[in-house]
Specification:
By secondary structure, the protein is α/β, with parallel strands linked by helices. Helices cover 51% and strands 13% of the residues. It folds into two domains: 174 residues, Rossmann fold; 98 residues, 6-phosphogluconate dehydrogenase C-terminal like domain (6-phosphogluconate dehydrogenase C-terminal fold, Orthogonal Bundle), CATH 1.10.3660. Strand 4, helix 4 and strand 5 form a beta-alpha-beta unit. The radius of gyration is 21 Å and the shape is globular.
Length: 283
């Protein structure tokens, strides 16, 4: 993919990190950053995430060989469709949204986009931070991290292959899943943990915050992320998130019952099972 022009719509943490990685590795002839605010684009320029800034999406993607839509999930469908209508017929368009079924279905409903199957496939890098903005971007953010690519039954194999090659060039580990399977999995591994972190943070009385230590801080870290962005994610993955939440509620009910009955062997068994699961992750 060397010497291709890459346009990034939304140059925040993920978009900025992609831009930094492309420029550091010499994988793009030009990295074009597209956004709504000049001040944000100026930051991306100052931090070296992009070569050129554009406020007009149509103009920004016109010369692009690859377009990455890295905006909040509620705006992905609109921006992908606008990009598809503005790029050349050989350009690849993908996104980095944390939900996939709603996004992919919404884009496929746009009948006027005749080249959709040839040019778009969804993606989701499983990397990030509660901090936002290009000032927190890192060129190595995707190194060794998983990127899920989510073709549908309408997606051309060659389109999926191109997207996978793009992410692999950034040293990411690429996994292929359907949009629905992705959302079911991410409800358990990403969306529910954020909900739990937020609930724990909200349940802690202010007067006890001076007593929190690393356990509380580690467990609630992601609760510091953008509330508007995460509300959008929850709303787009409601069904799978509710299923994951029901499983958690069952676990909490069992723990509460065990503690109330002083069934400490049951509690220890649950803790041992949890430890085995966590230890299996290897870090």
């Amino acid at each position: 993919m060397t010497n291709q022009n890459v346009a990034i719509v939304g140059v925040g943490l993920i978009g900025g990190s992609i831009g930094l990685a492309l420029r550091k590795r010499g994988l793009a002839a030009e990295v074009i950053g597209i956004g709504r605010r000049q001040s944000s684009l100026d930051k991306a320029l100052n931090y070296g995430a992009i070569d050129r800034a554009e406020l007009d999406l149509k103009k920004g993607v016109a010369s692009a060989d690859v377009v990455i839509v890295a905006s909040p999930v509620a705006s992905v469908v609109e921006q992908v469709c606008l990009a598809l209508a503005s790029v050349g017929s050989q350009a690849l368009v993908t996104d980095v949204g944390s939900t996939k079924a709603t996004i992919c279905a919404g884009i496929e409903k746009q009948a006027k986009i005749k080249t959709l199957a040839q040019q778009f496939v969804g993606s989701h890098p499983l990397a990030g931070d509660h901090r936002t903005g290009p000032e927190n971007a890192r060129a190595d953010l995707l190194v060794g991290k998983t990127v899920v690519v989510t073709p549908t039954g309408k997606t051309f194999e060659s389109t999926t292959d191109r997207a996978e090659a793009f992410w692999a060039a950034l040293d990411a580990r690429v996994v292929r899943m359907s949009p629905a399977e992705h959302d079911l999995a991410l409800a358990a591994t990403s969306h529910l943990p954020h909900l739990v972190a937020s609930a724990l943070s909200a349940a802690t009385p202010d007067q006890w915050l001076s007593l929190v230590a690393t356990g509380w801080a580690d467990t609630t870290r992601v609760a510091a992320a953008d509330p508007e962005l995460w509300t959008q994610i929850f709303s787009q993955n409601k069904t799978a998130l509710l299923e994951a939440l029901d499983r958690l509620v069952d676990q909490i009910d069992q723990l509460r019952t065990g503690i109330s009955a002083e069934n400490w062997s049951q509690i220890q068994n649950t803790l041992q099972k949890a430890k085995r699961t966590r230890d299996a992750l290897g870090n």
